[in-house]
Specification:
InterPro entries: FAD/NAD-bd_sf, FAD/NAD-binding_dom, NDH-2
Largest sheet: 6 strands, mixed
CATH topology of the largest domain: FAD/NAD(P)-binding domain
CATH superfamily of the largest domain: FAD/NAD(P)-binding domain
Number of helices: 13
Enzyme class: oxidoreductase
Structural class: alpha/beta
Strand content: 15-25%
EC number: 1.6.5.9
Number of domains: 2
Helix content: 25-40%
Protein name: NADH:ubiquinone reductase (non-electrogenic)
Shape: globular
Catalytic activity: a quinone + NADH + H(+) = a quinol + NAD(+)
């Protein structure tokens, strides 16, 4: 493999980056002016701003606002080569990476490897739930959920019985982290505000939104006070919050959970189920861990050293959602800071001959966590500082727009947010049958999909929570 491996012409240090999420993109940008050659490999052609996927799913934003072309982002960086492909093999002894795109297979040699392949949805061993309860990790997921949500309202207009209409208008979200909370709040707003007077045969506010979690509070990382505030706001807006509830079955028409206190099982009839309860790191992490003698965790994360290397390999770095270090969360800021840190120490090594044993340890600066609960209302935790309500909402807007790529995306997104804040209208609610059915159709055909996290290497850095 090593004899046929591809590397750029010349003798410069070659860095291969797997994944073009926050970690991969920020690492590549940092290396754009360094005396190195960079090859960045990504499954899709775009960098995804995953924290805003739920706004695509609920019709506030279009896909173009949160997904930018990797080639355009890195244009003008003459030392960076962008490759689209699935990484199928990594050999840390031969220092090679193999990727496949259609009928094309290529193997690249590296001097330094940055693995920022991110994470997919985890169903905790119940992967069959995915057929009926998609997650929210990709653009395909967001468009499918939009189609499912909008279609439920359209079919409720045609329902002939109250029972059928109730089933269609019951939305169940599993997982009360930031994604679940934000989705629940937005679906409630669609029903109570955006769809008012748009249907003739039923009142949209009759929709029932149920948020289920096995923990005793919503937003566990935010602490009890903010969790309680978020729960009260959700309930004020019509969301039913069910805690201490372990989901034991999901099928086409129902969700069944067990109350962990009483051991009783409850079944909810629902046409639309959404899963946001867990993540599973890319299997590329375990592939590397097995080769260097490190044991990956159950969720696929790999323990890394203080300089984010793995085992005794001083030139193999795992960052973002894939790494396990100091209990750092899977958020965008971790990916960004680890990407920039690794790029910096590679530059120090190449340009100033800094040996691996003299590297500074990675230190994370916690910029806080935040989630929108409803219009004009967000919760923010920054160290010991906790902010809620309108001020929290403004902080959320400022932080998220600052990380969007490109002036056009920033402007259009702020415009869309302004329209949504001042009027009930949502201008991105178009759906297609392909969006709604393609994922499961491809699975039945045996094709690869971006949601098959259990068996396929994830070549993206999602970092969907923020």
């Amino acid at each position: 493999m090593a004899e046929t491996a591809i590397r750029p012409a010349g003798n410069r240090h070659h860095v291969v980056i797997i994944g073009a999420g926050f970690g991969g993109i920020f690492a590549a940008r940092e290396l754009g002016d360094a005396d190195v050659d960079v090859t960045i490999i990504n499954r899709t052609n775009h960098h995804l701003f995953a924290p805003l996927l739920y706004q695509v799913a609920t019709g506030i934003l279009s896909t173009g606002e949160i997904a930018a072309s990797v080639r355009q982002i890195l244009s003008g960086k003459d030392n960076i080569n962008v490759v689209r492909g699935d990484v199928t093999d990594i050999d840390v002894e031969a220092q090679t990476v193999t990727s496949v795109e259609g009928e094309f297979s290529r193997t690249y040699s590296y001097d330094s490897l940055i693995v920022a392949a991110g994470a997919g949805q985890s169903y905790f061993g119940n992967d069959h739930f995915a057929e009926f309860a998609p997650g929210l990790k990709t653009l395909d997921n967001a468009l499918e959920l939009r189609a499912r949500i909008v279609t439920a309202f359209e079919r409720a207009e045609l329902a002939e019985t109250a029972e059928e209409r109730e089933r269609l208008l019951t939305f169940v979200i599993v997982g009360a982290g930031p994604t679940g909370v934000e989705l629940a709040g937005q679906i409630a707003e669609m029903a109570r505000r955006s769809f008012t007077d748009e249907y003739s045969n039923f009142v949209p506010s009759q929709a029932k939104i149920v948020l289920i979690d096995g923990m005793p509070q919503v937003l566990p990382p935010f602490g009890k006070r903010l969790g309680k505030k978020a729960q009260r706001e959700l309930e004020k807006n019509g969301v039913t919050v069910v805690l201490n509830a372990m989901v034991v079955n999901v099928d086409e028409g129902t969700v069944t959970y067990k109350d962990t206190k009483t051991e009783q099982e409850v079944t909810i009839e629902s046409a639309t189920k959404i899963w946001s309860a867990g993540v599973q790191a890319s299997p590329l992490g375990k592939l590397i861990a097995d080769q260097v003698g490190v044991e990956a965790e159950r969720n696929g994360k790999v323990p890394v050293n203080a300089d984010l290397t793995v085992g005794d390999k001083s030139n193999v770095f795992i960052i973002g959602d894939m790494m396990s270090r100091d209990r750092l969360p899977g958020v965008a800021q971790v990916a960004i800071q680890t990407g920039e840190y690794v790029a910096h120490i590679i530059k120090e090594q190449v340009e100033h001959d800094v040996a691996p044993e003299n590297r500074d340890d990675f230190s994370y600066f916690d910029k806080g966590s935040m989630a929108i609960v409803s219009r004009f209302n967000a919760v923010v935790k920054m160290g010991k500082v906790e902010v809620t309500g309108f001020i929290g909402w403004l902080m959320w807007l400022g932080v998220h727009v600052s990380f969007l790529v490109g002036a056009r995306n920033k402007f259009v997104t702020m415009l869309s947010w302004g329209i949504n804040a001042l009027t009930p209208k949502r201008y991105n609610l178009a759906t297609t049958l392909a969006q709604m059915h393609a994922r499961n159709a491809l699975l039945k055909l045996g094709e690869r999909t971006t949601d098959d996290a259990a068996t396929l290497p994830e070549v993206r850095d999602t970092n969907g929570e923020n």
